[in-house]
């Protein structure tokens, strides 16, 4: 099956192609109960358009997939349309960084490897009627990020000049490989991908490049990575090289975000709640080997998690999102306990932004994490119902079920979510009576 049209530069061509393919993309696929609510697309950094991401998720046998781009919702509508075509459940959100000033954990390292006092958060389950509001909200942050990216390229070019490497041109080598013109963001990964392509052109693939990395750049190349970089036929070559640079090179050119790019956590959470979405803190936890291969072993928020989680609740967060493969079972059981104590929803997702990654996450089917599937169906019902009626947002104070416990609301919403017709989610509102009344 030729999937090239699904990654065409034209949105119209992509959607026409996926509609023509429809559910044929799932022929021979073994369906699972797996879900993934954290897939990046070309609107942040990824080898996949939203259309191709939907198809890849369907071909992996997933029941549901969620788009999660950095500082952008420009791919959300496309993802929802593509998911309808291939008959897979969908959810939409975005990821951003916020300033922790004024919180109980101000000045500490939370979940951001690059900076103190800045944290990652996700905004899940955006009602489709609020995409334009989200786009306007994110625009100044995105513009500030691009200005910082330009400054980072200037710093990186100083490093490259010392190595005898031609400078990177921001417009033709970085902006050009992004979707900034269509409302997408430009990230450090775009800069590193441009660098990877430049070094491949300079050194070729194989021993010459590895020698340059070790001798000129003084970069450690682990044996596992060396093996794949010695293979010129490796289809993930530039992404593998990018992963090495993400872990080792970024500190040499990184510029701290300013207040225009990383706004106050209070402002961000308030916006998410105002549009009927679900603000979620992205738990990282002390990590060993990164599942995406681009983060070094490091300590994050585990030492003060008992203090952090109640603070998140106070600020207005409604959920914590995490990646089950990233941490130990003990870490996540502790997190689950704190979520239950503070009535915070748990949302799962495995960060997909590289061609080498699989869309599957079988660990979610093990007993400690099965409830994350139910949470995803509740998230989907929340999003589709709130699109038709804002009062049906899962956390709305006007929700008829607002008096029930979070656990009971999730159970009822999940039951509805499973019954929504993926090919016609706009009719989800017809299932409202199945939520029942606000009494147990």
Structural class: alpha/beta
Number of domains: 2
Strand percent estimate:
5-15%
* CATH-assigned fold name of the largest domain: TIM Barrel
Distance separating the two termini: 50 Å
Please tell me what the overall shape is: globular
Name the helix and strand elements from N-terminus to C-terminus, one letter apiece.
HEHEHEEHHHHHHHEHEHEHH
Largest β sheet strand count, sense and barrel closure: 7 strands, mixed
Written overview of the protein:
It is a single chain. The chain folds into 2 domains: 4-132 and 263-361, Alpha-Beta Barrel (TIM Barrel), CATH 3.20.20; 141-252. It contains 14 helices and 7 strands. The protein has helices at 11-21, 50-59, 76-86, 131-162, 170-174, 188-203, 207-216, 223-229, 237-248, 265-274, 305-315, 329-341, 371-388, 406-417, and strands at 35-39, 64-70, 89-99, 118-124, 278-282, 319-322, 345-348. Strands 1-2-3-4-5-6-7 form a 7-stranded mixed beta sheet. The longest helix is centred in the N-terminal third of the chain and has 32 residues, at 131-162.
